[in-house]
């Protein structure tokens, strides 16, 4: 990431949650409704605090649960408002029917989801399983790596969701427990610059909204051809979102002097023979290990997914073409598949990538730390794979089948 | 209906007066509500409880809109005077 030290009003040490709440506040939402849940609670607390102090000039709806939160902000969004909510795991599952409606009605809602294991085994721990469990809901999914990126990504998310060509809700994901509670240096942009950046939306044609007294309805056409037409339009808009996100990324760079790389971030990939494909907070550790390995002459790079839905297959294929071996790190499971979910999706483009060996690494489930040693173990397997040695297609890095976890 | 110009907007927005009443629910009906106007006290329960809101009030009578009445029989069940009976559709043919 390139960054120049201007264009910011102040630098603060903030947790991921506080950053998310501040980012939403900077975007001046009209309606906010969120219900607290570990590890997202601080987002709701901060939003309430900003509201109380007058910093957040929005209507806050005190809801009795996540399902109400999503339903109320979807309605507010259809009435033309800019809306925000935040959730995690159980909360995301509890609003599952509502997020499907949000996507179906093409309401440009922005939500942060603080990744946590799903209710499966009452796990109060990090993992991307909640993201994977809701991936086909029709939302755009973005994944942040650090606190700074949470702030910048939420601002970009509004530009993407509310764009007249897109009009799809956006979920910004970041790792619970790791990013949610980790305090680090965050550069806060000037309010005026955020306003300027978002003002592009005001120049676009006004989107359709509910008006009192007007006989206008949204989303009650679940039969026959109309349904198919909407779904087809939705899929086309998803494809457009890829290019739009690249464009927003460039405009963001112009305004804030930061460039994360669009749909994917390429880290030392240009001359690499082998690579890792990963997402979220683990990428910081992976980058450190890559730097160390490169000192020893191992040409390895990282491809970091910033956008998971729509799946940036063109960018991935372009970046990974010609690599001898690629390891995909998944912090979640794809039950019924041996491989991790992102690996499964990458493998569906294997014929486009060419003669590349793909390895699946499953790690970081339920707060298992993805330490430097874990990454080194993955890289050793990738190197072995690139030399044509017999390596397992799927490796649970922190779990030994004979001796258990860690 | 199955063409690509059904919706004018990016989202599923449409004219509620036309499109909300587009479902041909009347074709689902196997029984038809028949109102005995002599017993009817015009309380309006049938209109309130009708799931498709097809009971229309005409002066001092209630008449189901048979384009939308799906014959569920809730009006007959709720009528305090038992003034509505559900008659098999074939009886009208």
Structure report:
The complex is a heterodimer of chains A (406) and B (93). Chain A has helices at residues 16-26, 41-53, 66-78, 89-94, 96-104, 129-133, 147-161, 191-203, 224-256, 282-295, 313-320, 341-347, 350-353, 372-386, and strands at 2-3, 8-15, 31-32, 59-60, 83-87, 110-115, 140-143, 170-175, 183-189, 216-218, 258-259, 264-267, 274-278, 300-305, 307-309, 325-330, 357-362, 394-396, 399-400, 404-405. Chain A has 406 residues and is α/β, with parallel strands linked by helices. Chain A folds into two domains: 2-259, Thiamin diphosphate (ThDP)-binding fold, Pyr/PP domains (Rossmann fold, 3-Layer(aba) Sandwich), CATH 3.40.50.970; 264-405, Rossmann fold, CATH 3.40.50. In chain A, the strands form five sheets. Chain A has a seven-stranded mixed beta sheet with strand order 4-3-5-6-8-7-15, with helices on both faces. Chain A has a six-stranded mixed beta sheet with strand order 12-14-13-16-17-18, with helices on both faces. Chain A starts with a strand and ends with a strand. By secondary structure, chain B is an alpha+beta fold. Chain B has one domain: Alpha-Beta Plaits (2-Layer Sandwich). Helix content of chain B is 15%, strand content 23%. Chain B contains three helices and five strands; from the N terminus they run βαβαββαβ. Chain B has helices spanning 16-19, 45-49, 74-78; strands spanning 13-15, 31-35, 55-58, 61-64, 84-88. In chain B, strands 2-5 form a two-stranded antiparallel ribbon. Chain B is elongated and about 50 Å long. The two termini of chain B are 29 Å apart. The model of chain B has no long low-confidence stretch (mean pLDDT 86). Chain A binds chain B through residues 104-107, 164, 167, 207-208, 215-221, 223-226, 228-230, 232-233, 237, and chain B through 1-4, 6-7, 9-17, 19-20, 22-23. Strand 10 of chain A pairs antiparallel with strand 1 (13-15) of chain B, so a sheet runs across the interface.
């Amino acid at each position: 990431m390139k960054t120049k030290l201007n264009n910011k009003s102040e630098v603060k040490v903030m947790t991921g949650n506080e950053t998310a709440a501040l980012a939403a506040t900077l975007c001046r939402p009209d309606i906010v409704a969120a219900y607290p849940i570990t590890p997202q609670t601080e987002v709701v607390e901060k939003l309430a605090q900003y509201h109380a102090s007058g910093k957040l000039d929005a209507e806050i709806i005190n809801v009795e649960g996540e399902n109400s939160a999503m339903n109320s902000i979807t309605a507010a969004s259809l009435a033309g408002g800019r809306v925000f909510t935040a959730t995690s795991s159980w909360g995301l599952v509890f609003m599952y029917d509502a997020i499907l409606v949000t996507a179906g009605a093409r309401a440009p809602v922005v939500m942060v989801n603080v990744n946590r294991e799903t209710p499966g085994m009452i796990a109060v721990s990090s993992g991307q399983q909640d993201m994977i469990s809701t991936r086909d809901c029709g939302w755009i999914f973005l994944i942040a790596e650090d606190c700074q990126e949470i702030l910048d990504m939420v601002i970009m998310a509004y530009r993407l969701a509310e764009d007249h060509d897109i009009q799809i809700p956006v979920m910004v994901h970041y790792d619970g427990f790791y990013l949610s509670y980790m305090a680090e240096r965050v550069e806060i942009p000037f309010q005026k610059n955020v306003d300027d950046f978002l003002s592009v939306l005001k120049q676009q044609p006004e989107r359709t909204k509910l008006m009192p007294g007007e006989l206008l309805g949204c989303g009650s056409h679940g039969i026959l051809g109309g349904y198919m037409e909407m779904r087809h339009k939705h899929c086309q808009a998803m494809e457009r979102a890829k290019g739009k996100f690249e464009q927003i990324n460039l405009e963001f760079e112009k305004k804030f002097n930061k460039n994360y790389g669009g749909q994917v971030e390429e880290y030392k990939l240009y001359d690499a023979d082998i690579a890792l494909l990963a997402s979220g907070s683990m990428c910081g550790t992976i980058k450190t290990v890559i730097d160390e390995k490169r000192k020893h002459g191992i040409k390895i790079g990282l491809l970091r997914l910033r956008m998971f839905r729509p799946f940036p297959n063109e960018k991935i294929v372009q970046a990974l073409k010609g690599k001898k071996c690629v390891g995909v790190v998944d912090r979640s499971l794809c039950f019924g598949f041996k491989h991790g979910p992102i690996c499964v999706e990458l493998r569906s483009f294997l014929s486009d990538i060419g003669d590349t060996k793909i390895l699946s690494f499953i790690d970081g489930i339920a707060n298992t730390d993805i330490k430097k040693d874990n990454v080194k173990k993955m890289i050793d397997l990738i190197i072995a794979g690139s030399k044509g040695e017999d390596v397992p297609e799927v490796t649970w890095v922190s779990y030994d089948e004979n001796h258990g976890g860690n | 209906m199955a063409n690509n110009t059904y919706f004018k907007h990016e989202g599923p927005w449409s004219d509620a007066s036309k499109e909300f009443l587009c479902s041909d629910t009347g074709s689902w009906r196997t029984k038809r509500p028949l109102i005995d106007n002599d017993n009817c006290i015009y309380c309006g329960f049938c209109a309130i409880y009708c799931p498709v809101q097809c009971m229309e009030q005409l002066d001092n009578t209630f008449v189901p809109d048979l384009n939308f009445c799906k014959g569920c029989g809730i009006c007959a069940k709720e009528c305090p005077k038992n003034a509505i009976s559900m008659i098999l559709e074939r009886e009208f043919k």
